[in-house]
Design brief:
By secondary structure, the chain is mostly helical. It has helices at about 1-15, 35-55, 60-85, 100-135, and strands at about 25, 95-100. A two-stranded antiparallel sheet has the order 1-2. It starts with a helix and ends in a 53-residue tail after the last helix. The model has no long low-confidence stretch (mean pLDDT about 80).
Length: about 190
């Protein structure tokens, strides 16, 4: 939920910021430029969609897609203004921060790009780490394909085949084959 709110802030703050004395390039509210589209709206949309995918995820893959999309948006908030100098004749496409003091200008850069992007990267990386730590469901090796030592069988007479004296229920170490202890979804 926090990623969605941060994405909304990243998309709307440049348009409403001039009402509060926080602006980039021009102090006109709701001014639409290509720089705003590429450096503020596009990453904000990516973060909002990624956050919504994380909220609605029912699988690890869906959640990971959302986390990666939000992560990409956060990274673009951080590096986008600098990278924009490549296509904007050496100037940042968003223009300079406007304000009455250096403190206000610094606050604008942090609130619109750098701190915002860093916080989004932090939260999306945390979500991706959480998803990676979840137990894997429905990917266990079926018990009939693993002997008691955890080695796969090669068929009759193979080196990993179970002893004929135990009826195939136990491997050569005598340990019974069992299901993993992780709960399964139904």
């Amino acid at each position: 939920m926090l990623l969605v709110l941060l994405g909304l802030w990243g998309g709307f703050a440049p348009f409403v910021g001039p009402y509060f004395g926080l602006a980039m390039q021009r102090d006109q509210p709701w001014l639409w430029t290509t720089g705003r589209l590429l450096l503020e709206i596009a990453p904000a949309v990516a973060v909002v969609i990624g956050g919504l995918l994380l909220i609605r995820a029912v699988t690890r893959g869906g959640g990971s897609l959302g986390g990666l999309l939000a992560l990409a948006g956060g990274v673009w908030f951080v590096v986008g203004p600098t990278v924009s100098m490549l296509w904007n004749q050496g100037r940042m496409a968003v223009g300079p921060a406007l304000g009455s003091s250096v403190g206000i200008k610094t606050l604008v850069w942090l609130a619109f790009f750098y701190a915002l992007g860093a916080l989004i990267v932090l939260l999306s990386a945390y979500a991706l780490g959480f998803l990676a730590a979840l137990p894997v469901d429905h990917e266990a090796v079926p018990p009939d394909r693993v002997d008691g030592r955890g080695l796969g069988r090669r068929g009759k007479g193979g080196a990993d085949a179970p002893d004929s004296t135990d009826g195939g229920a136990q491997g050569s170490t005598g340990a019974a084959t069992h299901e993993p202890d992780a709960p399964r979804r139904t």
